[in-house]
Amino acid sequence: MTVASGPGTARPASPELLRSVFRRHAAGVAVITARGRSGPVGFTATSLASVSAEPPMLSFAIGTGSSTWPVIATGEHVGVHLLGEHQRELAQTFARSGADRFGPSTAWREGPQGVPVLDGVPAWMVCEVVTRVPAGDHRIVLAQVLLGDSTGQGRPLLYHQGRFGGLRD
After folding, report:
1. pLDDT, tens digit, 9 for 90 and up, residues 101-149
2. Which SMART domains match (predicted)?
């Protein structure tokens, strides 16, 4: 294998290399929610991507070790919420293991298909899960958008260098 020369030293592929490279990649922040038998579940995701316009589809990744995975693994519907820069605390709550994600500090309601819908987000969608694709220690979930609302206020929340932040003009 030929490695291009540059300012640093190339390293072999590893989880640490992947993490260090993607810390340099700014990503939008979303919260994925679903209704489980024991109540609502959710997690913070930076892997959200638009997949198809016709039909409208998106994808996101979830670790199989996540406490939310068992519900996503079998559930038919998910809520996808794009967070605004005013929602750093909400992103941290849904990213923290063991947090009371749907406690008193989280404003939400039951939405279409019983999916938990977060209040105050710039945009949200309710989607039907189409398939789950194995990808190492994660699964890529493909979901078709059923309905949504993009009229909320706020500039997008970003994740970069291990921190939540906003756009700079």
Report:
1. 999 999 999 999 999 999 999 999 999 999 999 999 999 999 999 999 9
2. Flavin_Reduct
Q: How many Cβ atoms from other residues are within 10 Å of residue 65's Cβ? A: 9
**Shortest CA distance to 144 belongs to which of 159, 126, 157, 156?**
126
Residue of 110, 107, 113, 119 lying closest to 145 (CA atoms): 113
**Alpha carbon 145 to chain centroid distance?**
15
pTM over 0.85: yes
Q: Which of 3.40.50.880, 2.30.110.10, 3.30.450.180, 2.60.120.260 is the CATH number of 26-118+130-152?
A: 2.30.110.10
